[in-house]
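User: Could you go from structure to sequence for me? I need the amino acid at each position, not a summary. Structure tokens:
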């Protein structure tokens, strides 16, 4: 029983999982153990042996510096700051951006005891000082912690005379006004921009 209990306990501590989902996962693995366990074991081995964090930007790749940092096709003077690698993947999937990144590994949070030293910030400030960064694009989440973190970085950009921009926030494509919450609507108002015409 302790084998099962320990494993359920382990899974229940993973992000976004609780004891209920953890129990389901462990039972599913047990029912399909011949097929799933060898696959998971070798995948985890590969994860450990072949992937690393890029020392420059914090991305995950098979090499450091990563493929994005070393690509000659990308614009090194633009750096998009994201909270986690998952956010980088989402932006890459959109194909909307062709610059470099910096992955913070979280956000500033007084409640959780996460200060600037706990995030991948010192290497960002070093890049600002050493590199030819012309624009820092802040793409942290629109949460209180995300906004505070963005403001903290923006202050540092100003000191280094670097243009700082923030992703537009507000009404989603296909969104209807009467379905939006107050915060989304007020952010949309405060970040409104001039409408361009083709004339
Ligand atoms: Zn990199």
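Assistant: Here is the amino acid at each position, in order:
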């Amino acid at each position: 029983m302790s084998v099962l209990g320990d494993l359920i306990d382990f899974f229940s501590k993973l992000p976004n999982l609780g004891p209920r989902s953890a129990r389901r996962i462990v039972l599913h693995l047990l029912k399909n153990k011949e097929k799933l366990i060898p696959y998971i074991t070798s995948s985890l081995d590969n994860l450990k042996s072949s992937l690393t964090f890029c020392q420059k930007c914090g991305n995950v790749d098979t090499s450091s510096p990563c493929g994005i940092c070393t690509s000659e096709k990308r614009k090194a003077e633009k750096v998009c700051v994201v909270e986690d690698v998952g956010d980088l993947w989402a932006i890459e999937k959109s194909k909307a951006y062709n610059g470099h990144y910096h992955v913070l590994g979280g956000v500033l949070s007084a409640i959780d005891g996460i200060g600037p030293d706990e995030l991948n910030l010192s290497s960002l400030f070093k890049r600002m000082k050493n590199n030819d960064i012309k624009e820092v694009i802040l793409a942290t989440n629109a949460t209180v912690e995300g906004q505070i973190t963005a403001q903290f970085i923006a202050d540092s950009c100003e000191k280094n005379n670097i243009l700082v921009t923030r992703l537009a926030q507000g009404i989603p494509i296909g969104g209807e006004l009467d379905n939006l919450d107050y915060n989304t609507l007020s952010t949309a108002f405060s970040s409104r921009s001039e409408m361009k015409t083709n004339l």
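One structural detail worth keeping in mind: Residues 54, 56-57, 59, 65-66, 68-69 surround zinc ion (CB under 6 Å).
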